[in-house]
Design brief:
By secondary structure, the chain is mainly beta. The chain has one domain: 6 Propeller (Neuraminidase). The protein is built from 2 helices and 28 strands. The longest helix has 15 residues. The chain is globular and about 55 Å long. It starts with 10 loop residues before the first helix and ends in a 9-residue tail after the last strand. InterPro entries: 6-blade_b-propeller_TolB-like, PhoX, WD40.
Length: about 400
Amino acid sequence: MKNDLPPNPLRRRLLTSGSKGLAVLAIGPSLLSMSRPINASLTGAGELQAPDSLGIRLPIGFSSRLIAAAGQRLEKDRWWRRTRYRWHTYPDGGATFATNDGGWIYVSNSETLSFLGGGASAVRFSHDGIVEDAYRILGDTNVNCAGGPTPWGTWLSCEEVDFGRVFECDPQGQMPATVRPALGYFKHEAVAVDTLFENLYLTEDEGNGRLYKFIPAGVNSDGNLNLDAGTLQVASVDNQGYVSWIDVPNPTPSIFQTPTREQVPESTAFDGGEGIWYANGFVYFTTKGDNKVWRLDTNLNHLDVIYDAATSSNPILTGVDNVTVSPGGDVLVAEDGGDMQIVVIDAQGKVAPLLQVVGQDDSEITGPAFSPDGTRLYFSSQRGSALFGGGNGFGITYEIRGPFGDFLSL
């Protein structure tokens, strides 16, 4: 896939030079944050204030903007100047991608059926954050829930249906999306790329779902990981938290064959795998059935729980869903239900809300992702309505601006 995303001079060298070089890329955001004034982690951003005009509660110093609403054209720099494309319904997982002109693209999935517009769309922003365009990058797929970005600038969109697939998409929308069967046929939720060891990790949204690892068959001629061939493995966790990875015998079963999660009896079940994100040598993921946030050390192959609503002294986070990591290293978890909050977990395990959407209790927060420069946070209310002051609808996508770079999780 070719696009005008900015070339990363480290990417090809790091993907082929082993872990020593890749460690530099992995810790880069945290080192950059150290050059800024350090107040605390985002758990110390402050108390949430009264709802603003969009019904969003934020700490002092932060502000919100409506970017897109389902079925409506996106506003550019004037209310009468709008994109031709109408935003998709039921927005879900998302990520951002820098462009050569200093702008960026926010990609968002549509969690609905193919004949209702399932797939994924993108919003392109100028260097100063003005909406320039919106367009579809994937269509004719079903219940695209979450997914994940790749280091080479593509979006992996996951189908959350039985025997669902993963599609690799061009955020520019210039190249057609490509299905990647080697990543397995199962009820996919999300995927994260470990740039250090060059593996992919995938969650499965089933009550007895599994955690998977995909080992690509080397790199392509363009220096990107080969997602067309490789080995799909499933996690088996011992009572000390150490993970063994076992090959899945048949990663692409048909509807009449044994599902991947049942093919390896000694593998470990996870209660409803949801969002997953890689940062600084760790993979973070959530399980909605037991309201836990997990952390996998991809070097030691050790798994632990960094948040459990059942045992936490401050159990404010429930309905755990999509997850991302801030430029300063805080883990941000979006709630599906709960109090409609994005909740921060810092390096010390402290939890605090970063924002709350009010008046949309029947919705869920989806797709949290920071702009490439770390100054803006995007997310959606999947079933919110821009026409009726929140309430029930088909989805709204927001932008939050604030001093994110001033907070470092220590």
